[in-house]
Amino acid sequence: MKTLIFPDLHEPLAPVLAKIEAIIASEAPDRIVFLGDYFDHYNDTPSDADRTARWLKKSLEDPRRIHLIGNHDASYLWPNEATFCPGFTWEKEEAIRLVLGKNAADSFVFHIWVDGWLLTHAGLSAQWVNIDTRVVDEWLFMEGKAARKAFAAGRTHWYIAVGPKRGGTARAGGILWCDHRELEPVARIRQIYGHTPDDSIRIIKGGPGVIAGRQHFQLCLDTNTGHGPQHYAVVEDGKVATRLFAEHPTQ
């Protein structure tokens, strides 16, 4: 099984979307995972949101593709005071809703496992985990259901908690808001996530416990500093490689 992983998009320009499609065609993966944050960019417009939503609608129709929820996406999937994120506008919300429909949230997920790696938008920090990590998947499934119910009702949930590195009061951000600089590795879990942009990929090695005799490995893949993502990841047989967008021709 070959899986491609793309980090935060933030309403990329059409050439970036074309590059993503070219990479997918060239790599010929069995599965593609997008880590969320499809919307909101500096000085973007409802027309930008409409363009991204149209690409996203087509992408959602491909059964190989899995689309995670980011903190910016939650604002548009459940627009209310509990989920609002910087960049949100009602004009963009209307443009997105007209394309994706009012039940769009059903097509997105909060997390997925890929060859033993936990993928979320922003990462799961140990401050939130008070269970045996051998049952963490079941726990995340139940927490995901609780988050959907809370967001639909206009209530908050720890998934969208904001930690100190982003000006919040929570002990660490939830899986939609955790900053890479505040993430504490969870015992026996390897992770890939986005959300915290930088010019380069960042790695946390080490942590409590071991995974199949190997070190912990937490990978922040977000290298979108305003011009679209610069890197993506390939996972095969549990091994991860990162690659540059620039290595692939547009067509």
Could you please describe the fold and organization of this structure?
The protein has a single domain, classed as Purple Acid Phosphatase, chain A, domain 2, CATH 3.60.21. 25% of the residues lie in helices and 17% in strands. The chain is built from five helices and ten strands. The chain has helices at residues 14-27, 46-60, 71-77, 90-100, 136-152; strands at 2-6, 31-34, 65-67, 112-114, 117-119, 190-193, 202-205, 217-220, 231-236, 239-244. It has a five-stranded mixed sheet, covered by helices on one side. It has a five-stranded mixed sheet with strand order 4-5-6-8-7, with no helix packed on it. The protein is globular and about 45 Å long.
Name its key features.
251 residues; alpha/beta; Purple Acid Phosphatase, chain A, domain 2; five-stranded mixed sheet; 10 strands; 25% helix; globular
Question: What is the C-alpha radius of gyration, as a whole number of Å?
Answer: 17 Å
Q: Which spans of ≥5 residues are poorly predicted at pLDDT below 50?
A: none
Beta-strand content bin: 15-25%
Order of helices and strands: EHEHEHHEEHEEEEE
Percent helix among the residues? 25-40%
Shape: globular
Question: How many distinct domains?
Answer: 1
